[in-house]
């Protein structure tokens, strides 16, 4: 699902550029909405094949897609109230909760490091990508006319010093690699100061200015990292005494899913669990469920911290919170991850003084802060480390995807420096013919 692409967003999401009926299989790397968000639309448009994923990815996808369907309905209803008054044609959601139910029936679970044979010509295995719960790189072997090829799709890659999760796994030698490149030309700061930065921003906004701190955060991954960091402040006795709200029913569900998969935590988190059985709960924290409770937060003038989805502030309850608080200089909007440049979060991050929210212009009087190191995406060093298990001479081609063009060009130069011979930056819907190797007979 495309987000934050301005006027072209709807067009990109409504038209795949291929016929879904002609697709046989779908292998899903992870449950973030930019990767799974159009699956119900794909099914509604004719896809009838199997969808392969890890168990955790399926669990997360179910709640994320149902939430996405609900957000679309609520947002289109809200916009249509205005559109009907102006005589324009009402908007229609991309899909409904019924479409989500139909899509979920097609899922099949495959566990990490399991060699799964789709048919006599295709097999694959998932290796842990360390990005979010259940995330995987996809390693495919394809046999055709007594020849075969090895293709790896990185999915989105996590960090080798992630706050919560284990590091990405090494993966089998590939002939072709499709590689994410979100932070391909930059380096994150160390994660250790995150707690201190949060403490400082909360203190300044809520205790000094007596304002509200609004934090757009993805329900899966980022919200849990924030809760873990805030819990660490309480364990250290330095958590500011203010109310904390997670205004996202989806975040509560995702947090419960993560609690049920403690095997994914890294050693540092495992040590914390020995002295704190709930690493996502602390004094003053409340999860908001109902719409009525969410609306009351906007009417309550008292200082507080509100964590709400989505992370790019393009949809969901956080967009309403920003609209209601952006014109008050007591308040702060804290951005804690990557935002598409044209998204509301991206515009705020770039310093725009006037932004459009639900069709209306708003002056940006609230303070805008950014913590760039809170990213679930690996940086340039992490991406290169992920590839370090490969013999560059054996890799025929690397395709760079999931990144801005200038970043991809810079990362291509890095890859050439470390010995990879051919790197392409494909255009959308570009078709590539892959050369297969002869099968070695025993």
Automatic annotation (TrEMBL):
SUPFAM superfamilies: Metallo-hydrolase/oxidoreductase (SSF56281). InterPro entries: Beta_Casp (IPR022712), MBL (IPR050698), Metallo-B-lactamas (IPR001279), RibonucZ/Hydroxyglut_hydro (IPR036866), RMMBL (IPR011108). It comes from the Bacteria. Residues 223-348 form the Beta-Casp domain. GO terms for molecular function: hydrolase activity; RNA endonuclease activity. Keywords: Hydrolase. This is Metallo-beta-lactamase family protein, RNA-specific.
